[in-house]
Design brief:
single chain; 352 residues; alpha+beta; six-stranded mixed sheet; five-stranded mixed sheet; 7 helices
């Protein structure tokens, strides 16, 4: 629509000058008529030429930032032509897939002659997660505003938003001690709470489920995995990826906070969640702040579920005799309370 108005304004000015030339026979109006006749072709032609030489890029790689911290998107528009362009638009698509949040932004960036124009664009995420920024198209407008020309590009940048390092949960130590029971191995294949510590040759009496089939095929001899059972001094923490929006964000914040407290107190623990995508219980042993951030990032690529308590249901089916700390929506769980967070999230000891 703006192009139509620009063309109409130009046409009115062109006809007005032509009218004055016919009545005044002015040499100035004659020269102006020539310029007005040539200028649209020059304007559009230069825009086409500049479009071929213009490009854009995002600086830097994937970054990990603290929640609530504004982050800068560094964009560089390069114009390798001799044609300056004042109106260059970069269309950005911003997405936090874990929370299902999507938005678009359009930046107007001038492109100078034979120069790089760096621009910093500040963003702030309302929730945790992986915030991806994509640019798929760059648009230029000619000097007179007659045409908009589009060029396909492919730019991608990710920001991993994790909680602040210090979130004190002040858990009930008595409840924590009650929840730290021995993790018993489940007969279903793939669901055992033990860790592989070494691989050795098969010995009579070794269980078939511990055979390392891939390695055995390579070595032409049977190799087995040596496992170390998780002891009774380890806390099993189940994080419910339930609800949505602010509640789910608080669940992740609370899970991070209690895990950080356990790390500070040298409490051995594992973090688990039910994966909708893979239909299995994903369990990780976390022994450092760096591993905790890696676990958070892993969760961001999962899919939240609408059914409250699905993780607890699956955990109790797989390990009916196990006690564990469930982190989920307040008021939806039974058991001894370990902590509460923002009146929306609770941590309770579940299981027998």
């Amino acid at each position: 629509m703006k192009q139509v108005f620009s063309i109409l304004r130009y046409a009115v000015f062109y006809l007005l000058n032509l009218f004055m030339l016919l009545f005044l026979h002015s040499y100035f109006n004659f020269l102006l008529l020539i310029v007005l006749t040539v200028l649209p072709f020059l304007s559009v032609g230069c825009a086409f030429a500049a479009l071929y030489f213009i490009s854009a890029s995002f600086e830097g790689t994937k970054e990990r930032l603290a929640f609530g911290e504004p982050f800068l998107l560094k964009i560089v528009v390069r114009n390798n032509s001799v044609v300056p362009l004042l109106n260059v638009w970069l269309n950005l698509a911003v997405e936090n897939a874990f929370f299902g949040i999507r938005g678009t932004h359009t930046l107007n960036i001038p492109a100078f002659v034979k120069q790089n124009n760096p621009v910093k664009y500040e963003l702030l995420s309302e929730y945790l997660g992986v915030v991806s920024v994509d640019a798929t198209e760059i648009t230029v407008m000619d000097w007179l505003g007659f045409v908009r020309l589009h060029k396909k590009i492919s730019l991608h940048k990710e920001y991993v938003i994790v909680p602040e390092e210090h979130i004190s949960m002040e858990p009930d130590d008595t409840a924590v001690a009650y929840g730290m029971t021995e993790a018993e191995e489940n007969p279903k294949e793939g669901y055992d709470f033990s860790e592989v510590t070494d691989v050795r040759e098969y010995q009579p009496g070794d269980r078939l489920q511990n055979i390392h089939w891939k390695l055995s095929a390579k070595k032409d001899e049977i190799m087995v995995k040596e496992r170390e059972s998780l002891s009774s001094s380890r806390m099993m923490v189940l994080v419910e990826l339930e609800s949505a929006g602010a509640v789910l964000n608080d669940i992740l914040m609370a899970a991070y906070g209690i895990a950080h407290d356990f790390l500070e107190g040298h409490t051995s623990f594992t973090l688990s969640y039910w994966s909708i995508k893979e239909q299995e219980l994903k369990t990780s042993t976390v022994s450092s702040h760096y591993e905790l951030c890696d676990w958070m990032e892993q969760v961001y690529y999962e899919q939240p579920y609408k059914e409250d308590g699905l993780g607890r249901q699956m955990m109790q089916q797989l390990f009916p005799q196990m006690r564990f700390l469930a982190v989920g929506k307040a008021g939806s769980m039974q058991g001894q309370t370990v902590f509460s967070y923002k009146q929306s999230v609770e941590g309770r000891i579940c299981g027998d």
